[in-house]
Each structure stands twice: as structure tokens, then as C-alpha cells.
Specification:
The structure holds two protein chains of two kinds. Chain A is globular, with a radius of gyration of 14 Å. By secondary structure, chain A is mostly beta strands. Chain A has no helices and twelve strands. In chain A, strands 2, 4, 5, 6, 9, 10, 11 and 12 form an eight-stranded mixed sheet that branches. By secondary structure, chain B is an all-beta fold. Chain B is built from no helices and ten strands. Chain B has strands at 4-7, 10-13, 19-25, 33-38, 45-49, 53-54, 62-67, 70-75, 84-90, 102-106. In chain B, the strands form two sheets. A six-stranded mixed sheet of chain B has the order 2-10-9-4-5-6, with no helix packed on it. Chain B has a four-stranded antiparallel sheet with strand order 1-3-8-7, with no helix packed on it. The chains are: A mainly beta, B mainly beta.
């Protein structure tokens, strides 16, 4: 059974960098059948796609966050990571890591597995 | 970027009612549209992808239709466990934008 687990600080100061890691278990992050994503949800609000990464390192980012986001992958640890720089209170959210199936017939970009999510609060 | 809208933003219906939620893309996205259900305090769950393909394990009372810019999610007979917020997401190309959500509760 695939499991995704987010880890990282729950509190980040304004202007600092938010760093999270997603550990994938029960499956290989190096499979060409999948891509991996970060999605966030501010308290009481909707879902926002942050970006995605393929095991080869190819990345795809949200237009609005592109200047502040870096997503990377460590295939030796079966992990992928998120860094978001210069955070403000508006970046307070539950951050989810997730999996995109990569299917020729139906495309890729929807999410079939989600981590449990981790709340990151930006506050001094 | 393509914008996604949903209507209504919330609805209240009786158990057994047929419920329809609409999702509209600002440009055509073919059938690259997914629907998710998020129950209060829970992780989102994939219901439908490719506009009309039911994810494994999802009850058959859920169905999706549409192509191009206009899509619908239908619950044929609303159940108490369907109380949730429903999101559409387009994935024809990046960015993979979500709709703002439709909150469904029981009357």
C-alpha cells in the first residue's frame, strides 16, 4: 500500500524559507508511471497546486509561486522536497504531497494518492 | 493561465436527491478534468478523472460528464456520507488549477 508522509517544521518565521520533505513508502519514486506533487490548502480555503516533479528531475511550477519555489527529488531516499522562500502569513496552509499517475491514455496531473498533510504556520 | 469556476458555491439537498455540480474552464481543456471529494478535516479523495472515468472503489452514484469547457459532477442519490466539499481540477497542461469548491450538505 502506497504511503506518502510529509515532514518538516510546523512553524516558520516571516521572510524565511519553508522546507518540507515527502517520504514515499510502498512504491518507488523512480517509476516512470508516476510524477510527484506538492499541493497546499490555507485554513478554510481551497486547494492550490504548487508544483510537480518527475523522478528524472523535470519540474513544473505554479505561475504565481514559480519565483519562490524549488522542488527536488532524492531517488536514493525515495523522497522529494519542497522549498518556498520569503514566506509570509499568506503561505500558512496545510501542505500535501501527492502522486500523479502518468498515463498515456488519460494524461497526467490528477492526483490518486495524497499524504495526510502537514500544517505550516508562518508567524514570528 | 486557464481559470476554473464552480457553481453553485454551496448547496443543501435532501437524502436521495439528485445533485449536480458544474465546473467551467475559461478555455477548452478537452476531457482533462478530475473531481475530488474532501470531507471535513480529511484528505481530498479522487472521484473521477478524464471527465467521466470513475476511480476504483468510488460508489456508482457518482458520475461525471462534459468536454471542452463545461463539466458536471452528478450524485444520483445523495447520501449522508456525501457531505463534503467537491473540487474540480484541470490537468490538460500546467498549471494544474483547482476550482474553488462546492460545499454540499444535507437539508
Amino acid at each position: 500500500q502506497l504511503q506518502l508522509q510529509e515532514s518538516g517544521p510546523g512553524l516558520v518565521k516571516p521572510s524565511e524559507t519553508l522546507s518540507l520533505t515527502c517520504t514515499v513508502s510502498g512504491g518507488s519514486i523512480s517509476s516512470s508511471d508516476y510524477c510527484w506533487a506538492w499541493i497546499r490548502q490555507p485554513p478554510g480555503k481551497g486547494l492550490e497546486w504548487i508544483g510537480s516533479i518527475y523522478y528524472s528531475g523535470s519540474t513544473y511550477y505554479s505561475t504565481s509561486l514559480r519565483s519562490r519555489v524549488t522542488i527536488s527529488v532524492d531517488t536514493s531516499k525515495n523522497q522529494f522536497s519542497l522549498k518556498l522562500t520569503s514566506v509570509t502569513a499568506a503561505d500558512t496552509a496545510v501542505y500535501y504531497c501527492a502522486r500523479h499517475p502518468n498515463r498515456v491514455t488519460t494524461g497526467w496531473g490528477f492526483v490518486d494518492y495524497w499524504g495526510q498533510g502537514t500544517l505550516v504556520t508562518v508567524s514570528s | 493561465d486557464i481559470q476554473m469556476t464552480q457553481s453553485p458555491s454551496s448547496l443543501s439537498a435532501s437524502v436521495g436527491d439528485r445533485v449536480t455540480i458544474t465546473c467551467r474552464a475559461s478555455q477548452g481543456i478537452s476531457n482533462y478534468l478530475a473531481w475530488y471529494q474532501q470531507k471535513p478535516g480529511k484528505v481530498p479523495k479522487l472521484l473521477i478523472y478524464a471527465a467521466s472515468t470513475l476511480q476504483s472503489g468510488v460508489p456508482s452514484r457518482f458520475s461525471g460528464s462534459g468536454s471542452g469547457t463545461d463539466f458536471t459532477l452528478t450524485i444520483s442519490s445523495l447520501q449522508p456520507e456525501d457531505v463534503a466539499t467537491y473540487y474540480c481540477q484541470k490537468y490538460n497542461s500546467v498549471p494544474f488549477t483547482f476550482g474553488p469548491g462546492t460545499k454540499v450538505d444535507i437539508k
